[in-house]
């Protein structure tokens, strides 16, 4: 059963019944954090199913907000944004595991430059500053969330921050940004920050896109960052040239995330270790679901609720909503799945064998009330389905 609704729900057909509910939404970008979305959806569910056993499990897929979902100390320090302007950014450091959780969106994210995109000239230097700082605090492992970047620089900004400088054919340092990547001829390692570059890297992606080509970083994500068709061609050529100079296979799944950041990181780690075994590219939403207990909780759930700001054609490429459907299909296919979204810009398919309830947020200007209302509607739909199924 799959439907979209935004009307106020009627009372449940039968008396309220207990339910084990897992609420695991992504952030509704620009309106509600994942934590708030989970809380408000839960309030709506409890208004209809008052004795429901509810687990709130805010989710992320490697984009903005991912690092804050992990345990550890929040570190804030000055750095630069994608346009090179001074800013502040935060990450999480877990001293017990010597692991730093860093979102590339924190320093090099799109929102900070949305009014004046820098897709051709912006770089990830500011993220490199966070990485270097984490290593000085004792980090031996960097978990880097790759969603929400404003750049297509192949990670060269991070390399510069860690002392590895891209050079053109004349031996001069390359001008920052993806628009100049096709000029790269070499990488100078004379001043490389060996301790920072030699950490173990876990790259959390929300896409399986390769570095280059029709499905690559520039073609798929460049337009979202402000690239014209002509810009896309230049950026794609630059990423291909960087892969060639760095000796990286551009067809590696996930290498297109965050404008090809994995290219630079894989090159640096391979240089320092002699192989790429210290770099792991993993689906961000699955890693978060394992870390916050969602995978275990799903196995006993009768209702699983997820959501995002807009359900669209990219949802199925590794985003939270699609991942939750996959996990339900794998661990508890009998559970009812519901999706709340501000808009459904693509038809909601049966994902991984799961036919979800789809609820569109109302047109209220109060985001809290929108999500509470969505929780009510989902609860009513769940009760109706339970009645039909006996």
From TrEMBL:
Cited Pfam families: Gly_kinase (PF02595)
Entry keyword annotation includes Kinase: yes
GO biological process, one term: organic acid phosphorylation
Coiled coil, from the record: none
Gene3D superfamilies (UniProt xref): Glycerate kinase, domain 1, Glycerate kinase, domain 2
One Gene Ontology molecular-function label: glycerate kinase activity
SUPFAM superfamilies: Glycerate kinase I
UniProt entry keywords in alphabetical sequence: Kinase, Transferase
Protein family (similarity comment): Belongs to the glycerate kinase type-1 family.
Protein's name according to its UniProt entry: Glycerate kinase
Species this chain originates from: Corynebacterium riegelii
